[in-house]
Write a sequence for this structure.
């Protein structure tokens, strides 16, 4: 029973979209008046397989304690340094963002898992891994795909900035709106890494303050 609870907690963490709307976010860019709600049917990636998950959970990433911030004084967020991505990369990242949120809107966590890098998956599944859950138990604990109601889906207003980082990853500042939450639209930074020709989510930062560095 304990293991099943851990798996459910991990699934609940995944269910929360990476776009977390900040209550006091500084406006970034000019969101379109017609945001896009990625359709569940656009989630076409194959569900994560037992063959991928089994070796992945055998090598967990060591936990890293986040740096503490003074109470009542959040650390301002700044875009990481990097060069502006070319048109082809921006197009590929836009497609990756769209498909991930299509899977979120589809309530299809097995497919959403497939769009995460190994490191990000280990982070989300840390509780299940620590509790000794097997890959099969994790997969069995995922709920059946069930599209979210229209008023609970995530909308995408746009991608304000896409940068190629020195380590080869790509960072994208995505502006979105999780309709299941009461807060207004806001930005989040999502990191991507290219694996076998596909851009996978590799980390995220939900922002409370946006500081745009000088070009």
């Amino acid at each position: 029973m304990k293991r099943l609870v851990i798996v459910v907690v991990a699934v609940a963490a995944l269910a929360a979209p990476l776009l977390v709307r900040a209550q006091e976010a500084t406006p970034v860019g000019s969101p379109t008046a017609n945001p896009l709600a990625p359709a569940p049917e656009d989630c076409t990636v194959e569900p994560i397989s037992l063959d991928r998950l089994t070796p992945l959970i055998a090598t967990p990433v060591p936990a890293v304690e986040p740096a503490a911030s003074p109470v009542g004084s959040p650390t301002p967020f700044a875009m990481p340094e990097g060069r502006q991505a070319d048109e082809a990369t921006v197009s590929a990242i836009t497609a990756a963002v769209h498909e991930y949120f299509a899977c979120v809107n589809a309530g299809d966590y097995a497919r959403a898992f497939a769009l995460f890098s190994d490191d990000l998956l280990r982070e989300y599944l840390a509780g299940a891994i620590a509790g000794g859950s097997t890959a099969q138990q994790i997969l069995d604990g995922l709920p059946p795909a069930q599209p979210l109601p229209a008023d609970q889906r995530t909308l995408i207003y746009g991608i304000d900035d896409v940068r190629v980082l020195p380590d080869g990853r790509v960072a994208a500042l995505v502006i979105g709106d999780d309709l299941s939450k009461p807060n207004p639209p806001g930005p989040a930074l999502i990191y991507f890494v290219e694996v076998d020709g596909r851009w996978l989510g590799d980390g995220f930062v939900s922002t409370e303050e946006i500081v745009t560095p000088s070009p």
